[in-house]
Specification:
mainly alpha, elongated
Length: 147
């Protein structure tokens, strides 16, 4: 039940990420860095995609995804269509993996350490959700700043 609630929130906010990216009038603006902003929205989107594919898809769902975290920040000019398609892939993965987790699974230790320590799976899912929304807010702010 808890995993289904978390899934519902992620699906809603992944939809919001798609909406934010879609609202950029000029696709090239997804790659603009301005002022003190250090990461372009396109890179933040790649980072969020990679993060969820790694921690939920590969770690909990055994999808085989191999993360290349550095590329999440070094890749540039990935098309909006590709980003939106990748988000759809994340949504599909989340819909496959999270419903398989029972409440007792969430009380078990997450298979990977987080910041050098063992955490419960529920703690990791909450961390992932907070991290996702932090960067979603950055993308929203960037979009409003340049438009």
């Amino acid at each position: 039940m808890i995993a289904e609630i978390i899934l519902e929130k992620f699906i809603r906010d992944l939809g919001q990420l798609k909406e934010e990216l879609s609202l950029y009038k000029n696709e090239s603006d997804l790659w603009v860095i301005k002022g003190d902003i250090k990461n372009a929205p396109g890179n933040l989107a790649l980072h969020l995609i990679g993060n969820l594919k790694h921690f939920i898809g590969a770690t909990l769902g055994n999808t085989g995804y191999v993360r290349q975290r550095d590329k999440e920040f070094s890749d540039k000019n990935v098309s909006k269509a590709v980003l939106l398609s990748e988000i759809d892939e994340v949504i599909a993965t989340m819909k496959k993996v999270l419903p398989t987790l029972k409440d007792e699974d969430l009380a078990k230790t997450f298979p990977l350490e987080f910041l050098g320590k063992k955490v419960l799976t529920i703690e990791m899912l909450i961390q992932l959700y907070g991290h996702f929304n932090y960067h979603l807010g950055q993308i929203n702010y960037h979009r409003r700043l340049i438009h």
